[in-house]
Queue: 2 jobs
Job 1
Amino acid sequence: MLEVKEEELKKILPFDGPSINEVKKYLEKYNDEYIVIKCGGSVLVDQNLFNIFIKDITTLNKLGFIPIVVHGGGKRISSKLNELGINSEFIKGLRVTGKETIEVVEKVLIEFNQEIVEALKKQSCNSETINSKNNNIINVIRENDELGFVGTPTKIDKTIIDKIVNDKKIPVIAPLGLDESNQTYNINADTAAGSIAKKIEARRLIIMSDVEGVLDDSQKLIPEINSISIKDLIDNETITGGMIPKINNCLDVVSNGVKGVVIIDGRKNHSILFELLSDKGSGTLIRQ
């Protein structure tokens, strides 16, 4: 159980976040367990949302949680490639990554990785970079020849994560990996986060995106789904397009030791805190 005195809670929690009574109740649920938080979409390009995200991670850290941050960067990568006149092509949502593109991808993601670490440090939240050049933890193989330098994780080095956490720092992980000849590969950020969550047997994997969660055919949020209801939702085409691989990745994660995966809306204020520390949550919880 995480123990924080009520007076401390008043100082730590944002005024527009979950109530102190709710937080006290939910702190009892967690005990030295990893929570993987994958951030992407608008959170990474909207400065206001980014600032809230940084403050929420800092709040979790002060409460005694062990958040592991995995970030994307697709919009920043597209912007940089456009600026350089390099065309972006996608196959089933994955960026075709040639020799020229992977160099840009790696540079953008490492710069952004460092930016997140610096932002956390400014909030007195110690953190450390994990990327292809520093503390690499992901070994990959090529997904297929068509996609080029896009990798599928084959091994996650948990010892580096454990060391950073034991040093009271937050690991901030870029979705990059190396093959056996030390060639850098781009990895889908959801896939990277899922592989890490499985390896460290996280209590939760939270996927922040630009959608509320999984919606029913009336466009209302579904608070919780499992493998049976997911099959029905795909069969009746309630879940379609790019949401199908995202959901299948979530199912793979909950089938391999992670207690639950949640898709939440990163555009909503303090969505991480409301998901972990309130009665209502803030997205769709996926269980086995």
Job 2
Amino acid sequence: MKILNLALLIGYLSFFMASTAAEEVKLNDSLSLHYQQAGSGDTTIIFIPGWMMSTEVFEHQLAHFKDSHKYRALAYDPRGQGKSSKPVEGHTYQQHARDLALLIEKLELENIILAGWSYGVTEQLAYLNQFGSNNIKAMIMIDTGPDIAGASRDEWVWYLNDDSDGYSRWFTEGIIEDRDTVISEFVKWMLENPTAENVTWISNIANQTSSSVAAITNATGFYLDYSKDLIALEGKIPMLYVVRDEVKEVADKWIKANTPSATTAYMGKHMMFWERPDEFNAVIDQFLKDMETK
């Protein structure tokens, strides 16, 4: 019986490893990006992690698509994050987008669906801004709008233009001066269920990014507004927003005013895709199904 159980376990692990592969692609002499992929479809959904995060946070989405023959799910670590190279330079979202373009080229991907989360949305919109939408089949924006800073909290933004609440400074200077506190408090804020185990796991991911890189990517993101680029897609390609419950009113107002044909879903907190995978993945599945019938 023990031998049989061991054989079954080995078979299961072999199947899972074959279905969800961790790989690395060399973009140039100084930069290699770590990525994971699952599924074997002609359309690739590229999941882009947020600030200091990595492919690991999309574990439930990769598992969800591992048996798919219609869609390939791919998640990668941007430069300076996760298991990707840690170069000194290039830590802007414009450069991240150029890295993404090279990743797509190297892997010969077509018919892509970009699915960014948090600052990963900024990264996908920076790609749209520089490379256009010819190779984009659809856009999925997870809990971030196209503008990072605004005049008030009545706008769908992360920061205030004058930083009167000190929020931007805390993530920029604070991550250098008091790294452990910033990471711990940020992780707790992202979660509905901030158990010690969950906080430790996500903090360990964040700790793969240096404080200087984290500060630069946050500070440079402050100035970006890709509203015009996103609005220009209205009615041209399918769009889905999945947003945390607490900003539903503000986000819904912006979406209905600027991209009214988009699909919307509201649930949980910032890491809803990880904490509520069944609910989140069902929204993705329905979005993909609706795309197929149009």
